[in-house]
Design a protein that fits this description.
The protein has 369 residues and is of the alpha/beta class. The protein folds into 2 domains: 232 residues, Aspartate Aminotransferase, domain 2, CATH 3.40.640.10; 119 residues, Aspartate Aminotransferase, domain 1. Helices cover 38% and strands 15% of the residues. It has 12 helices and 16 strands. Strands 1-9-8-5-4-2-3-15 form an 8-stranded mixed sheet, sandwiched between helices. A hairpin with a 2-residue loop joins strand 10 and strand 11. Helix 1 packs antiparallel against helix 8, helix 2 packs parallel to helix 8 and helix 3 packs across helix 7. The longest helix is centred in the C-terminal third of the chain and has 18 residues.
Length: 369
């Protein structure tokens, strides 16, 4: 049997046909950029995430950049980020002219801790923190970090590219954030057929400014009050996402079940499965385990030999990336992010995996010696 790491083509019955029909209608009506479907999707997204305000944009990286600017981050401002994240978090800071500072993460939770944030604030005196929620989880100390940063007058922008549908203390992580962003890249739990992203905030002013920034800084049709981007959400991607949104709960249930099944049934001592913290309700984006870094290459070859896909999310700390050196303002490291990058292994996890596929992965991994 062959089991891919991810399969984004397992559509619900009738989904493909509905997308084709709606796309034909867009073409007939000439709705290519903007139009009523974008507003409809933003409204429905707002309802699903329980955010106060939601806004679509062209991709998840632009979402972070626009959110940083709209929240008040300016040129040469110091912005702290976790050393374990995707490169977009780092480059977004650089692209707005700010300076990134990396903080180490926990080996146990794979996320930032309140202690790490305190250490960073005391050492760097930053303007902002990008709090990243990885693996379909949420940072376990999110509420404490938010409160501490509020007391220290540090802006918090939350990167929820992997956290749509995730909850902390039974509340939507996006809804409870002051400012949050996400990605609708096709591989995400709510994926478009191309690039798309979202910005969320409790602040109407942040959303208003974001809307201006992502449309060339336009304050009137030919009036430009700010230097912005061309980052509008297209009508086709809004259509695709709006049609996918009603199926999201079923997709999350399927993904969570797979993650839980792996944790309960894979007994191979070579792998240590990491579960979300007790106060976090996962969306099932990724199955996460760690293993002896020296043993990982052989295990990967074993998976390849048995036609099982895998991931290493992520295989390098931000501060160690070749492109980071010229831009990194400073870092605090205890070696955890670097170790995780060499130890993490992700088994196949996607919506609507079959029982046979899951069982094949479990049995094959358990047989590894």
């Amino acid at each position: 049997m062959k089991v891919p790491f991810i399969d984004i083509l397992r559509y619900e019955n009738g989904f493909y046909e509905t997308v084709v029909k709606q796309t034909a209608d867009l073409i007939k009506n000439g709705h290519f950029v903007g139009g009523p479907i974008v507003g409809q999707f933003e409204k429905n997204l707002n309802t699903y995430t329980q955010a106060k305000f939601s806004l679509g944009c062209a991709n998840g990286t632009d979402a972070i950049q626009v959110a940083l600017r709209a929240a008040g981050v300016d040129k040469n401002d110091k912005v702290m980020i976790p050393d374990m994240t995707f490169w977009a978090t780092f480059e977004a800071v650089v692209n707005v002219g700010a300076i990134p500072y990396t903080l180490d993460v926990s080996r146990e939770t794979l996320h930032l801790t309140l202690a790490a944030v305190k250490e960073g604030v005391e050492k760097f005196n930053p303007k902002a923190l990008i709090l990243v929620h990885l693996y379909g989880w949420a940072c376990p100390e999110t509420l404490e970090i938010r409160q501490y940063c509020k007391e220290k007058n540090v802006l918090v922008i939350e990167d929820c590219a992997q956290a749509v549908g995730t909850k902390i203390n039974n509340e939507s992580i996006i809804a409870s954030a002051e400012v949050a962003t996400t990605s609708f890249y096709p591989a995400k739990v709510l994926g478009a057929s191309g690039d798309a992203g979202g910005i969320f905030s409790k602040s109407e002013e942040v959303i208003k400014t974001s809307k201006i920034l992502l449309n060339h800084g336009r304050t009137g049709h030919y009036d430009h009050g700010l230097i912005g981007w061309n980052s509008r959400l297209g009508a086709y991607e809004a259509t695709f996402l709006d049609l996918a949104l009603p199926h999201l709960d079923a997709k999350l249930e399927s993904r969570r079940a797979t993650c839980e099944h792996y944790r309960n049934n894979i007994k191979n001592p070579a792998l240590k499965f990491i579960a979300p913290a007790s106060n976090v309700w996962e969306n099932g984006y990724l199955s996460v385990a760690v293993m002896d870094p020296a043993a990982r290459p052989a295990f990967i070859e074993y998976l390849k030999a048995h036609d099982i896909g895998y991931g290493t999310v992520y295989p390098g700390a931000m501060s160690e990336q070749p492109g980071a050196a010229a831009h990194l303002g400073g870092k605090i490291t205890h070696g955890h992010a670097d170790w995780i990058s060499k130890a993490v292994i992700n088994l196949p996890c996607f919506a609507y995996m079959t029982k046979e596929e899951v069982a094949y992965v479990v049995n094959t991994v358990n047989a590894y010696k």
